[in-house]
Amino acid sequence: MRGRELHTQKLEQNKDYLRRRAGAVEKLSDQYLTNDLLRGKVDEVLVLNDGTMAPLDYKFAVYENVVYLTYKTQLHCYAVLIEDNFSKQVNKGFLVYVRSKNKLIEVEISSKDKKMIKETAENILQIVEKNVFPRATHFKKRCLGCTYANICIK
Ligand code: SF4
Fold it and tell me: Which of 37, 76, 100, 146 is the S-S candidate for 63 at Cβ 3.0 to 4.6 Å?
């Protein structure tokens, strides 16, 4: 807990520096955003010097030289939410790895990434609203450790 507190204190001191490095001219903190498909709380929505916006998310994690897909997907979701709520384009997002001396990592976000999020969210909504049972994956490796393995008709 003490370590976490120290990290938080240090992070507060470094936030302006991190934003400047990200090219931000303005920031909106703790933005709870929604649209028809998604909802989420973005740590910071940055206004960048080229007029676009970008989500910034703090991770209490160590950077291991790779940005995991879960983190990327989260940024892609935030990009869709920001574009819908602020009518500004989002081409990138940022992650701050608090346990790696606040390492700032830039993650590009393409139109394809945002399209994929919208399609996936729509598909999930269909499953929930129409009670459609999704097809099983052809990649059986994905079933290892899956939460639904004991109820899934594989
Ligand atoms: S067990 Fe899980 S991963 Fe495998 S098909 Fe079923 S839901 Fe998909």
Answer: 100
| Structural domain containing residue 65 | 2-143
The pLDDT tens digits of the residues spanning 5-34 come to: 766 766 676 777 778 888 899 999 999 999
CATH classification at residue 101: 3.40.1350
Q: In what order do the strands lie in the sheet with 103-108?
A: 24-34, 39-48, 53-59, 92-97, 103-108
Give the nearest ligand 1 atom to 153 CA: 6
User: How many other CB atoms are there within 10 angstroms of residue 45's CB atom?
Assistant: 24
Q: Closest Cα partner for 10 from 79, 91, 99, 83?
A: 99
Q: Is the pTM of this model over 0.90?
A: no
Q: Of 102, 48, 104, 124, which Cα lies nearest the Cα of 79?
A: 48
Classify residue 131: in a domain, yes or no.
yes
Determine whether the shortest distance from the Cβ of 4 to ligand 1 is under 6 A. no
